[in-house]
Amino acid sequence: MTALLEAKGLEIHFGGVVAASDVNLQIHEGKNLAIIGPNGAGKTTFLNICTGYLKPSAGQVFFNGKGITRKSPREITRLGVARAFQIPQLFGEHTALENLLIAAAARERRWAPFTRLGQIPERAEMMHLLEMVNCVHVADRPVEELPEGQRKLIDIAVALALKPKLLFMDEPTSGVASSEKFAVLDIVAKALTESKVTSVFVEHDMGIVERFADEVAVWNRGEVLHRGMPDDILSHADVVRDVIGEEI
Amino acid sequence: MNLQLIALAVFDGVAYAALVFMVAVGLTLIFGVLRILNVAHGSFYAIGAYVVASVGGAIFAAGWSPWLAFPLMLIAAAVVGIVLGGLIERLLLRRIYDKEEALQILVTFAVFMILEDVQRLVWGVQPYFEATALQSLGNIQVFGVYYTVYQLILLPLVALAVLAGLRLFLRHTLSGRLILAVTEDREAATAIGIDTDKIYLMTFMLGAALAAFGGALASATTSVLPGIGADMIVLSFAVAATAGLGQIEGAALAALLIGLGRSFAVYLMPELEVLIPYLIMLLVLLWRPEGLFGVTQTRKI
């Protein structure tokens, strides 16, 4: 099995804080990988390095065998690595559909000073994406008016609009009411499968990890401590103490 | 103050507001998108005015139709915006987007100083006056006052057309929506792969062209001489700040407020003429520090 994304020997520190210390990780196509670990373990730093927002002091990242370590976030996005942030990065004053149309226009590099946004050819495709995340009924509402759960879904639809092969999600359920978390992630998981997108997500809620991850990687102090199947990892003594213990 | 004087003050104010608006709206557009306070904006105004006054003077002296003044203004504005604006954005501003604001202002101020000297080199220090466009439209009598059609009707109409056109462009077209998206959240725009470099370049060229267009229109109403760029940039800062930086519709209203304030001062308290725009700005900012239409920004992490 070849790796879709491979990180080799990543190093980075901020002052005295080691955020990545010899991080090696392979991400395989078609598997949803959960990243867990205590706060400050370097989880988000890893996402930032893989998506071009941070440059490691040493080490490399390969996507589909191609080095992307020194590329800009935009170049990496264009290669097929998308990202959903902890706080949805949506254009609040624009409607849900417009957010998707803007993403589609960016993907197709459209620049048309005399064309209406709603008339671009990708409109049907974007409506289909909204359907996939159960948000067709709010297509024409400004996203700033929508509840956090729907904003998360639209944020993921925006990421999927770029037709990525790999999607990084930073706490896809943070800010969503706990009663809705499973429902939201069920929709996300279905949309990811349907679009054949591999995902890597940082998550604090072990219930979510258990239900949605195919594999789990445990982070601590900038290192990958363990990696394996959810059942094995979540019952591992160190993990229970360092990660799950801290959550209680 | 009799009716005729009031009418005169209103006409002066409106005509002046239309010109200031063109410059201020470009300034505020550039600030809204690029987050750079462009001091060199006044130079685009001055150079637009110089180009039209000198080229216009030459072609009318050669016997060309006076109506060519109007297409000449549009062409001059586009050329100044695209060539000069494009060069400045590409070669200079692009390097300083991530730098601190003080440095950004210093750089654009340096560009302004350089361009001031370039104007003296190219056009000298003697005033240019080329009122063919103004004269070709004739006069009109309103409320017993004779006023030029150019200033009373054309300038306000052009300003309104620019306002409506910008609104339509930004709110409804694909390119406009991309600009708004970058304005709202540069990081999110980058995250979805919008080419922010291109958006910045286009916006800067558009803003510069608007200022040059303002200068082109103004050249028919006033002498073009060294220092007009400085006067205009200070005034359009006042307008943009009063409106709230980044506010396009607000800039129109603030320009009107300040234009009228200034023209009434000319008739009532001439010694306060220079002071009035800043007095208005001060009062507005004391009452609403974010400007008339400004919104306090909540920054995303």
From TrEMBL, chain A:
The keyword Nucleotide-binding applies. The keyword Nucleotide-binding applies. GO terms for cellular component: plasma membrane. PROSITE patterns: ABC_TRANSPORTER_2. Keywords: ATP-binding, Nucleotide-binding, Transport. It comes from the Bacteria. Residues 5-246 form the ABC transporter domain. GO terms for biological process: D-alanine transmembrane transport; L-alanine transport; L-isoleucine import across plasma membrane; L-valine import across plasma membrane. SUPFAM superfamilies: P-loop containing nucleoside triphosphate hydrolases. GO terms for molecular function: ATP binding; ATP hydrolysis activity; L-isoleucine transmembrane transporter activity; L-phenylalanine transmembrane transporter activity; L-valine transmembrane transporter activity. This is ABC transporter ATP-binding protein. It comes from Pelagibius litoralis. The lineage of its organism: Bacteria, Pseudomonadati, Pseudomonadota, Alphaproteobacteria, Rhodospirillales.
Automatic annotation (TrEMBL), chain B:
The chain crosses the membrane at residues 15-37, 44-64, 70-93, 105-125, 145-170, 199-218, 275-295. CDD domains: TM_PBP1_LivH_like. Pfam families: BPD_transp_2. It comes from the Bacteria. Signal peptide: none annotated. GO terms for cellular component: plasma membrane. InterPro entries: ABC_transp_permease, BCAA_transport_permease. It is a multi-pass membrane protein. Its main location: membrane. Belongs to the binding-protein-dependent transport system permease family. LivHM subfamily. PANTHER family: ABC TRANSPORTER ATP-BINDING PROTEIN, BRANCHED-CHAIN AMINO ACID TRANSPORT SYSTEM PERMEASE PROTEIN LIVH. This is Branched-chain amino acid ABC transporter permease. It comes from Pelagibius litoralis.
